[in-house]
Amino acid sequence: LRGDRIEGQVRSDFAYASELVKYIKSVRDMDVAGACYPEGHPESANIVEDIRHMKIKVDNGVSHLNSQLFFDNDWRCGYDIVSYGHDIEASWLLHEAALVLGDAEVLRSVETMVPKIAEAAHEGFTQEDGMIYEMQNGHGADGARHWWVQAETVVGYFNLWEHFGNQEGLENAIMCWEFIKAHIIDRENGEWFWSLRSDGTVNREDDKAGFWKCPYHNGRMCMELIERTKNI
Questions:
Q1: CB contact burial 68-105 (16+ within 10 A = b; e otherwise)
Q2: Which residues of the chain have pLDDT under 70?
Q3: Angstrom distance (rounded) from CA 122 to CA 82
Q4: Which are the contacts of 126, defined by CB distance < 8 A and separation ≥ 6?
Q5: What pLDDT is stored for residue 153 in this prediction?
Q6: Quick one: pLDDT at residue 211?
Q7: CA dihedral defined by 69, 75, 79, 85, rounded to 10 degrees?
Q8: What CA–CA distance (Å, rounded) separates 6 from 186?
Q9: Which pLDDT value is given to residue 39?
């Protein structure tokens, strides 16, 4: 909500999320989500104070609270699933955000991380058979090739080639696109299938369009590649 405070800057808007919640509820009756911190907010003196502030949010109209799902206050991962699609997606989205910001220092910092994030995702890449869905510690890999993961894989690897000169990235992007054309695109009825199962069969049961699927990731992939290949 507030962003990082700049030392010496006087803020004339909302100092705390609870103030914004109170204002929103005074203007319109709508659901408002707020943050909560199982370990306590890093700036709270103690957990009792943190709970007191959380209660103010609820009293002011927060209808549900979102906790730290994946990391603790020291950025230690508390999640036992590795999502390869989210990793490769994060690699290019973070880079794109840094490019748009135009801050040279931020860009230098981000560009040291982008190849590393993509390399972490590469563990799930099977070359001719696309990117698998995820790995759960102690339970092995979910080898299904989900539609959105393939779309993000194409952009993520293309980004490595476009901005970092990684030739293997270009080759991987092309291989994943060939996999999509061969197995994910429904050429009879349109759109993309939900996935190719780990046994090699097409998943025709899950949604073509629904709560978790629409032409978002694949549509964005197409627009990204159209824009990125204009000057090639």
A1: eeeeeeeeeeeeeebbbbbbbbbbbbebbebeeeeeee
A2: 1-6, 11-12, 68-70, 73, 138
A3: 12
A4: 132
A5: 98
A6: 86
A7: 90
A8: 51
A9: 81
If we measure between CA atoms, which residue out of 183, 191, 198 comes closest to residue 217?
A: 191
If phi > 0 it is left, if psi is from -120 to 50 it is alpha, else beta; for residue 192 that is beta
At residue 202, what are phi and psi to the nearest 5 degrees? Answer: -80, 135
Global confidence as pTM: 0.74
Radius of gyration of the chain (CA): 21
- The pLDDT value recorded for residue 202 is 96
| Residue appearing with tokens 């909302």 | 14
Q: How far apart are CA 151 and CA 88, in angstroms?
A: 10
Asked whether the beta carbons of 117 and 83 are under 8 A apart, the reply is no
> How do beta strands 145-146 and 81-83 pair?
unpaired
